[in-house]
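Extended Data, panel c. Modelled sequence:
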Amino acid sequence: METETIVEKEEMALDLAGSGSRLVSYVIDGIILGVIGWIFNYVSMSVGGSVGSIIAFLAVFIYVVYSTYFFGNGQTPGMMVMNIKLIGTDGAYPVGYGKGFLRWIGMIISTVVIFIGFLWILIDKKNQGWHDKIAGTYVVNK
């Protein structure tokens, strides 16, 4: 006769970050990325042609690397300023680059669908946007 092992997952006590601090951190990161994007756009438009296209591609690549790196390490510059961090739903910190990349993909989806994925934070019990759910992350106070 086989015995069945049941493992109950213990609930973590979470100090979830509020939507206000998340929004401010997002704006800070947006300003940083906006300045970088503006510089790349200016250079791309000035150079033009295939070199301009390569520069535009580099701008997108930098955005992906920036997001994956900082999400993977648990804090973007905006999150550092707001004293919040990203943890895995399993409590892992930092969450790693795989989850960081998934979170970036989730943010693109949240943006494309008229920002509903971000607004979801306001109605979700655990303050998770679609990007958090896709990546398996929470944003908590540090």
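The chain has a mean pLDDT of 93. This feature is highlighted in the accompanying rendering.
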